[in-house]
Amino acid sequence: MSSEPNAYASHPPRMREATILDKVVANGGVMSIALFFIVCCLFFSVTTDAFLTAPNLLNVIRQSAPLLIVAAAMTFVITTGGIDLSVGSVLALTATLSAAALQAGVPWPLAILLMLLLGGVIGVIQGYFIAYERIPAFIVTLAGLSVIRGFALLITGGYSIPIEPTSPFVALGRAWILGIPAPALIAIVILAVAYIAFNETHFGRYVTGVGANAEATRRAGVNTRSVILWVYVLSGTAAAAAGVILSARLGSGSSNAGQGFELDVIAAVVLGGTSLFGGRGSLTGTILGALTVAVLANGLILSHLSPFFTPIVTGFIILVAIWLNFRLFRGGAKGR
Fold first, then answer.
1. How many CB atoms lie within 10 A of CB 124?
2. Contact (CB, 8 A) for 198 and 204
3. Which burial class, exposed, middle or buried, applies to 146 when counting CB atoms under 10 A from its CB (0-12, 13-18, 19+)?
4. What membrane topology is given (predicted)?
5. What is the pLDDT of residues 150-194, one digit of tens each?
6. Which pTM value belongs to this model?
7. How far is it, in rounded angstroms, from Cα 324 to Cα 275?
């Protein structure tokens, strides 16, 4: 018998039992969101004059960068069967603190590093209660949503903290490199790393195994609690990165930033075909889902509809996506 526990764990039992139907369902989810994305783009191209222009498309990509970054991390979380409702609050807190740190004279590289560390620490705290204290992720992160947002409001008193326009920090959100917005380039790099980690590494397979059958994965030699802890660290760090980018783009840190952001992130991940029951995820689907959410928000504004209509559409999409998710993945589980 091999002395390496990972020799067997690299392909946990449940994962090796994946059927052709599983692959068909997963690919079908990606194809469905790809088709829906194309339909949305065509619809707004026909109904509005500005949607298909280069400046608007680049603006959509720039504005969707925080969503893409956090949705990539959320894919790991939801694939384990968990959820993180605190990402919007973490975004607000780090956006606020980054602006406050810069005003206090903290060098901008150090400010960014501190914000990423703060996001990671928040992930460690929440992940500990979820993985080791066995408290449901919904409860832990719902509490985190309230507490973390409260800290952001307490720090600012409800006001925005401006960032000096001449600071190199704002280049993270406003610079253009070879005609591409800097936030988009950052998002592309993070998405590439996330894709490789999810699809080509032991950790990605462990994430899938934990969501599919945590007990079987544990018996295969995987430290499932550690895996769960780390996906929340990833989620917290990604939300912090999104907060830094958003504050750099807006030139200020606001405690009101990111309200409802967690709903957009969950919508993007579920639309992309990741199972809410865990055990199956798709980074490609998540990217398409996030871009779809961004295109819908942009297209509705260009159609001169009230901005308050956007949450209604987002909520409806989440409901339909979860219904389809339930029918597809829970039905597939029953079939086995």
1. 14
2. yes
3. exposed
4. Multi-pass membrane protein
5. 999 998 888 889 999 889 999 999 999 988 999 999 999 999 999
6. 0.87
7. 10
DSSP 293-328: HHHHHHHHHHTT--GGGHHHHHHHHHHHHHHHHIII
**Cα 135 off chain centre by:** 22
Is the distance from CB of 285 to CB of 29 less than 8 angstroms? yes
* Straight-line distance from the first to the last Cα atom of the chain, in angstroms, rounded to the nearest whole number: 30
List of long-range contacts for 219-222, beta carbons under 8 Å, 24+ apart: 220/8, 220/9, 220/12, 220/13, 221/5, 221/6, 221/8, 221/9, 222/9, 222/12
Pick from 2-6, 71-75, 260-264: least confident: 2-6
CA angle, 127 then 131 then 137, to 5°:
65
Percent of the chain clearing pLDDT 90 (strictly above): 62
Give the Cα separation of 90 and 256 in Å (integer).
11
- Provide the total of helices (H) and of strands (E) in the chain, helices listed first: 15, 4
Domains of the chain: 29-41+49-327 (1.10.3470.10)
Q: Supply the pLDDT for residue 316.
A: 82
